[in-house]
Amino acid sequence: MDYGASKNASVRRRAEDKFAKAKQRDMDVMGHQRQLQQAEAAKLIRLRALRLAKEAADKDALAKAEAEALAAGPKPKRVRKPKLAKETPDTSEIL
Q: Rounded to whole angstroms, how far apart are CA atoms 66 and 21?
């Protein structure tokens, strides 16, 4: 009976070791996934901040350009030169 009890204990210990290793592997994978998610979230936050800064800079530049255009006044109208009429050959002379 002593042999059966020690065999049971050995089997139980090996099963518990496998379970502990599997649990540790799962924890490692979850930790790695958490790191990837945090990196992705940080990247999105950085990109959003850059986009908002660019939009604000574009808005300021547009407002500045509009203010300069108003300060300069209306654009002067272009005066076009009249086109000269081209002489067309008389078709009656050709026939």
A: 67
Q: Distance (Å, rounded) from C-alpha 52 to C-alpha 44?
A: 12
Give the integer Cα–Cα distance in Å for 5 and 11.
10
The alpha helices in 1-95, defined as continuous H runs, are 2-72, 91-94
Q: Is the pLDDT of residue 94 over 70?
A: no
Task: Kindly report, residue by residue over 48-61, the tens digit of the pLDDT.
Answer: 999 999 999 999 99
In tens, the pLDDT along 32-41 reads 999 999 999 9
Q: Which residues of 52-73 are buried (b: 16+ CB within 10 A; e: fewer)?
A: eeeeeeeeeeeeeeeeeeeeee
SS3 22: helix
Give 77-95 as a DSSP string. PPPPPPPPPPPPPPHHHH-
